[in-house]
Amino acid sequence: MPQLGFLPRRACAALLSQMLRPPRAACLPAVCCHSQVAEVMLTSQLKPHQEKPNFIIKTPKGTRDLSPQQMVVREKILDMVISCFKRHGAQGLDTPAFELKETLTEKYNEQSGLIYDLEDQGGELLSLRYDLTVPFARYLAMNKLKKMKRYQVGKVWRRESPTIVQGRYREFYQCDFDIAGQFDPMIPDAECLKIMCEILSGLQLGDFLIKVNDRRIVDGIFAVCGVPESKFRTICASMDKLDKISWKDVRHEMVAKKGLAPEVADRIGDYVQHHGGISLVEQMLQDPRLSQSEQALEGLKSLKLLFEYLTLFRITEKTFGEKVRTTETQVFVATPQKNFLQERLKLIAELWDAGIKAEMLYKNDPKLLTQLHYCENTGIPLVVIIGEQEQQEGVIKLRSVATREEVIKREHLVAEIQRRVSQP
Amino acid sequence: MANCASLEELVRLQGEHVRSLKQQKANAEQIEEEVAKLLKLKAQLGPDESKQKFVLKTPKGTRDYSPRQMAVREKVFDVIIRCFKRHGAEVIDTPVFELKETLTGKYGEDSKLIYDLKDQGGELLSLRYDLTVPFARYLAMNKLTNIKRYHIAKVYRRDNPAMTRGRYREFYQCDFDIAGQFDPMIPDAECLKIMCEILGSLQIGDFLVKVNDRRILDGMFAICGVPDSKFRTICSSVDKLDKVSWEDVKNEMVGEKGLDPEVADRIGDYVQKHGGVSLVEQLLQDPKLSQNKQALGGLGDLKLLFEYLTLFGIADKISFDLSLARGLDYYTGVIYEAVLLQTPTQAGEEPLGVGSVAAGGRYDGLVGMFDPKGRKVPCVGLSIGVERIFSIVEQRLEASEEKVRTTETQVLVASAQKKLLEERLKLVSELWDAGIKAELLYKKNPKLLNQLQYCEEAGIPLVAIIGEQELKDGVIKLRSVASREEVDVRREDLVEEIRRRTSQPLCIC
């Protein structure tokens, strides 16, 4: 072991800096010992303004400074986000960077290892906030508030493995908007989605899609498919990976790693690969197996109401399954009736002859919801619905897939379709 | 109940079991199963008790900013940032914590007030104590030789908080600094000009800026006979002269810090002096002080500074005060502190007390402490103590009974009749898409009176009332909440009319 003794200041610092950076495999207790000694030596021998650094200057792992150029970008974005929140009548709120440790650890069972704790320096035990939601709940309870529409923009801290390339840091901003309070169902929920659309559109990052689901539907699906309750959350976590990996891989994980029965996994697979608009909701409401679950029915009804409001907010096309159209079909010919194949064929031929791009399902007796579902998935904007009653009265239902119904006389159909598709 | 008690015990044990599994990094599936068991147990406790109790307070010395306080804060920051921008500053941001070693050895006696993060196996970290050391670190890290920057952010000090005086453990600082080698005293003068502009614009009352210089202080101590080793500690005693009498300060220096009484008396002769540029000239003539090179350097710079401050039109706000010492270790030249002369109070209320609302100085050696080659980048800057300013502005607003709005909503979309939710949703969406700040009540069939009351409480100036007849006629009733006057507006003209009445600029957010 090298002599520490009384060395010239510079040599001392150099020697110590060697000792303070041993190879990773070296015993840590020894390093601790050395660094304590180093501290003592440096502060006693060097005057404060003459201290020479023996470390690399950097920001802590997973954090970064923002240069003036980066600040310009950030301020523009935050300005736009806050404007939107204010436009919807939200009040601003700010909470401290740290909370009492107990406030946080009780709420974050799963993530408690990722919370930054403050050192016990003789006072209260504190931790840096992990998100803005728990502080919000604490604020509401503390001030005995029953209603509040608030936004909060602030930094949060998580001791995760940072991946700078993917923009994942240990210190990062969150912009939260929340509506607390008992209100008539789904109106505040719809406003939250409206806000998301306004912001994402306003930032001009490109096309986007908002996926919507309901916890009760998920749990309902699991229940009717036969997932044991104790496995609900872990199967949920597997399912969540479907946006990154294929169903095949997700299914494999469920069966092989989480011990789910293969038939159960297959039943789940039948449901979870669906996405679409309001017609999917209606379709699932009629699903014989799923309607055995009260939970799922509740969730589906809520979603149905939500979609009605989103339609009035004119954002339903942002919540559809497919965004990029691969065909140019303008109108779909549908019927709820059985034995109406000939009528569909006749009508579609009329449309084709008039130069209108039209499709129909290659099925004798397709279900109406299946046909509507097809429209939404492929982005067909209009659907013509014919049925016996309409046939007799000489009228046809022409429906914009996004908005509402309209009833048209048959001889006006072509003209009306042409009018609509030539509009922007 | 026996059942409840044993169930709670089970919950507690299961909770500990889960925590220890996680610490041991046990198999993920196993952890999931145990967590599921825990949740099931908790659910059995019953709806009320399975709700985890919140400890309903913020940590000592910290506070939430309510919407009302946010509104005040926004106004104050607006004034400050406009001033910084007017003087050509860029803005940066740094992380809330630094490597512990970055902060070590920079704050002298105040180092014990630093919040450390727990050693959780990674780097040792501490919460930033101010914005100046991070700034110096930023300069050294990016090898910058000059920059003019402002930075507004929270800092953390394990102080003894005196919340009524606006003194917290977590609080905002608004810093402005000029880094770089320039001709003497011009940037220093600009800093003082900025301080005066900001404090003037905020209209928080009359203020005074005390100015001194570290070299004058050190020189003065030297010629009075203060031993080198006691410089810093005597400095912090002298610093208390704005709050405590000279007698008490002298007692502390002699009684607690072991200073020779004659030395203390000699100090007393100087530190009770304050004045304008004439005091500078007087001291330049002082036989003892003029023997000290350090002091001479400081006095010369102050003389130059006063010339520039006169040209900036603020000399009458500046006082050369020999008792100004400032706690921080890193100042090397001019130091300054702004105090309010009297805080405006309501009759019979306790004044907030005299305290500094802004401070700063020159620190030429700090960046060099970070640079591996010890390269120096001279800096001078200021920090606005906004928390105290927030308190004052809040008090002032309360006294004036001026209504502070916590939202900026311009119009509430309402209906007088039932079954008009859809129409309200459509209309409010149109308004949002046109950039109008609008709200609606989250009720299918709200009463008109409730909607009007909501507007009054929130300070919303306009109501757009939808009615069945009006829908058929293609109009919306636009009502002014203040005057209660209503007028029918064509739906297509509504946006324009709202903009006109709220004098909203035409751009859409």
UniProtKB/TrEMBL annotation, chain A:
CDD domains in UniProt: HisRS-like_core (cd00773), HisRS_anticodon (cd00859)
Signal peptide stretch: none
Gene Ontology CC annotations of this record: cytosol; mitochondrion
One Gene Ontology molecular-function label: RNA binding
Record field: catalytic activity: tRNA(His) + L-histidine + ATP = L-histidyl-tRNA(His) + AMP + diphosphate + H(+)
Family annotation (InterPro entries): aa-tRNA-synth_II, aa-tRNA-synth_II/BPL/LPL, Anticodon-bd, Anticodon-bd_dom_sf, HisRS-like_core, HisRS/HisZ, HisRS_anticodon
Domain Aminoacyl-transfer RNA synthetases class-II family profile: from-to ranges: 62-298
Enzyme Commission number(s): 6.1.1.21
EC top class named in words: ligase
Transmembrane segments: none
Pfam families: HGTP_anticodon, tRNA-synt_His
Keywords assigned: Aminoacyl-tRNA synthetase, ATP-binding, Ligase, Nucleotide-binding, Protein biosynthesis
Keyword Zinc: no
One biological process term in Gene Ontology: histidyl-tRNA aminoacylation
Positions that bind L-histidine: D131, L132, T133, R158, Q174, D178
Family named by the database record: Belongs to the class-II aminoacyl-tRNA synthetase family.
Name the record gives this protein: histidine--tRNA ligase
UniProtKB/TrEMBL annotation, chain B:
InterPro entries to which the protein is assigned, alphabetical: aa-tRNA-synth_II, aa-tRNA-synth_II/BPL/LPL, Anticodon-bd, Anticodon-bd_dom_sf, His-tRNA-ligase, HisRS-like_core, HisRS/HisZ, HisRS_anticodon
Main location, first listed in the record: cytoplasm
Superkingdom in the source lineage: Eukaryota
EC number(s) given by UniProt: 6.1.1.21
Transmembrane parts of this sequence: none
Start and end residues of each Aminoacyl-transfer RNA synthetases class-II family profile domain: 37-393
Pfam families cross-referenced by the UniProt entry: HGTP_anticodon, tRNA-synt_His, WHEP-TRS
Quaternary context: Homodimer.
Function: Catalyzes the ATP-dependent ligation of histidine to the 3'-end of its cognate tRNA, via the formation of an aminoacyl-adenylate intermediate (His-AMP). Plays a role in axon guidance.
Name listed for the protein in its UniProt record: Histidine--tRNA ligase, cytoplasmic
